[in-house]
Structures are given as structure tokens and as C-alpha cells.
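Quick one, C-alpha cells below. Sequence please?
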């Protein structure tokens, strides 16, 4: 199928790589070594999944995971999740994680809530390796190896995005956890700090979607973090391909480098505290500037239309209609010609 380059930023389209000498050398060596590396990586992932699942189920046996756990139990779970995340990263070829401004890394004992841009369903595994343990994720990821059991055991939250009632319940839980925890008084926190991806879905590192207000409703400072996956050799995002396909390429490739940058806390002013959506919009402005990514007003329904999950163009956002049109879908071969180091 012929690829058609888009002239405007699109957060869902496949990102095509610049075909340099380095690109061909990387993939030449990758395919040459794939018969050796790929089976080893599959074994590592299976091992990490089995061991992590077994131990976490043992640690959470006969307890209500929705209630506060003893700090020692929480620490044991966090250590096991770190182990699972580390092995899963090794098995998927994501060896090199570079932390930028580590002095601004949030204190997981006192932080209110952490937020990050969202590139891949694999993002939480990166953070497991960095010591985080509790996430807000879509319901479909509950069965994902390692991450599913880790999010559940880490007292994370799964939301059914197409169910308004589920979204409202999760929003109330987020508000309760970010507003009424006791760590600010010097006591051990009741629940691990939540990591929230405010875009609510993955994007391709070329544009930002609107930030949902859930993480900002408590009016407390948010700890800001960003992820940058290397795009030099393949598109790491799962916005325009199936999750399994997205995990296949880094397992075949020699390696992938990921940058995690910490920005410290964003402290809201009185207006932002009173208006969570204003708070969310201003934080998105910050991310847009830091990541050099243009803001778009695309929605999840737009993504599902582009992806072919539904064909009802009438329910797409006005932004999508004004900037792209009904023919812009993955099936029709629309891509983004964009490459960053």
C-alpha cells in the first residue's frame, strides 16, 4: 500500500523513518542476530511473567487489594514489580533508559500524583523499572503480561473508557487518593502514588491530545514526567498498529533507547485550583513546549475512526473534520513523515 504523507500533525498516524545508512545497518544486524536474540527474549518475557504473577498472587493472597495495605506489604510488592519490569524491559530489547534531571524525580512517599505523556501500552513497564507501581490504565490491559498483574497488585485503577459510569467511579477514586491521603502529615501513605497519563490514550510523539482533568481535580501539585522513545529505526507507538505488533519490532531490533525526563512539581495558582480543566490545559501547554509537540484537539473517537474501530465519521470531532477529512485513516495509508534522534 502506498504511503500518503500528512501535511498536518496527527497524533495517531504511523511515523515513517528516514532511510539512512545507519537505519539499514541497524536492521541488517538485527535480522542477522534475530535467530539468537529473539528466542532468548521470548524466554525472558515468559519467565518474568510467570515468576512475577506467581509471587504477586502469593503476596496478595486473602487480602482486599482495594483497601490500604501494610507499608511492609506495599514495599514487597513494589520490589517484585521492579523485578518484573526490569526483566520485561530486557526481554523486549529496551535496555537503555536515560533519566534526565534525576534530582527532580518525585519522592514516591510524599508526591500527590505523577503525570506523563503516553506513547505506548509498554510505558508502565518503564516506570515499574524506575520504582513506580500504581497506574491508571484501560481495562483491556488487565490481561497484559507483567503489567496487568503489577497494576492490580500495586493498587492501580482500570477504567472502561467506553463506560461513562466506570469513568466517573475512577474519577472519584482518583480525587479521593490525591486529596485525602495522609503522607503530607508525615504518616505512611495509604496507597502508592498514582501515575496518570492525562491524554487518556497513546499518541505517536508528534502531537499532544487534550489532557483530561482527572489528575488535576484535587487542586494539588502534580509531578511532571515525560517519555521519549527513540524513533530512529521504527515507530515505538501503538497508535496505528496492534499492541502485539508494536512489541514485536523492539524484540527483533538490537536495542531501543528511552529518555525519561523529570520536570518537578507544577504548583497550581488559585484560578487553576478552582478550574481543573484550566489547570490541565496549562500543564499541557508546558508539555507542548518542553517536548516540542504541537497541540491537537483530537479525541478518542477520532483515534478509533483512524484505526478502523468504527466507521461513523459523523461522531468524529470538529477538529478532525476541519484538519483531516473522512479519507484520513490507517487503511488508506496516511502517515507522518517525521524523525527525531
Amino acid at each position: 500500500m502506498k504511503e500518503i504523507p500528512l501535511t498536518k500533525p496527527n497524533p495517531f498516524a504511523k511515523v515513517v523513518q528516514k532511510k539512512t545508512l545507519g537505519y539499514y545497518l541497524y536492521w541488517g544486524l538485527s535480522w542477522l542476530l534475530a535467530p539468537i536474540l529473539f528466542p532468548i527474549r521470548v524466554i525472558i518475557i515468559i519467565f518474568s511473567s510467570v515468576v512475577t504473577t506467581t509471587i504477586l498472587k502469593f503476596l496478595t493472597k486473602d487480602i482486599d487489594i482495594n483497601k490500604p495495605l501494610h507499608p511492609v506489604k506495599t514495599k514487597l510488592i513494589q520490589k517484585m514489580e521492579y523485578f518484573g519490569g526490569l526483566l520485561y524491559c530486557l526481554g523486549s530489547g529496551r535496555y537503555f533508559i536515560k533519566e534526565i534531571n534525576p534530582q527532580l524525580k518525585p519522592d514516591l512517599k510524599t508526591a500527590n500524583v505523577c503525570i506523563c505523556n503516553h506513547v505506548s501500552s509498554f510505558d508502565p513497564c518503564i516506570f515499574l523499572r524506575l520504582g513506580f507501581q500504581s497506574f491508571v490504565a484501560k481495562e483491556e490491559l488487565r490481561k497484559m503480561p507483567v503489567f496487568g498483574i503489577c497494576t492490580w497488585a500495586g493498587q492501580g485503577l482500570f477504567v472502561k473508557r467506553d463506560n461513562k459510569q466506570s469513568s466517573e467511579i475512577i474519577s472519584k477514586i482518583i480525587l479521593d487518593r490525591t486529596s485525602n491521603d495522609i503522607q503530607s502529615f508525615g504518616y505512611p501513605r495509604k496507597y502508592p502514588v498514582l501515575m496518570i497519563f492525562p491524554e487518556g490514550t497513546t499518541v505517536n510523539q508528534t502531537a499532544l491530545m487534550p489532557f483530561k482533568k482527572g489528575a488535576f481535580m484535587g487542586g494539588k501539585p502534580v509531578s511532571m514526567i515525560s517519555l521519549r522513545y527513540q524513533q530512529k529505526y521504527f515507530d515505538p507507538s501503538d497508535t496505528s498498529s496492534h499492541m502485539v505488533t508494536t512489541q514485536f519490532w523492539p524484540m527483533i531490533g538490537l536495542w531501543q533507547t528511552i529518555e525519561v525526563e523529570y520536570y518537578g512539581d507544577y504548583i497550581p495558582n488559585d484560578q487553576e485550583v478552582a478550574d481543573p480543566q484550566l489547570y490541565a490545559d496549562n500543564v499541557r501547554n508546558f508539555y507542548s513546549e518542553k517536548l516540542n509537540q504541537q497541540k491537537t484537539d483530537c479525541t478518542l473517537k477520532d483515534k478509533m475512526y483512524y484505526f478502523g474501530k468504527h466507521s461513523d465519521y459523523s461522531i468524529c470531532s470538529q477538529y478532525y473534520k476541519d484538519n483531516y477529512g473522512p479519507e484520513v485513516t490507517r487503511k488508506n495509508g496516511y502517515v507522518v513523515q517525521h524523525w527525531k534522534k
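The two ends are 27 Å apart (CA to CA). The longest strand covers residues 257-266.
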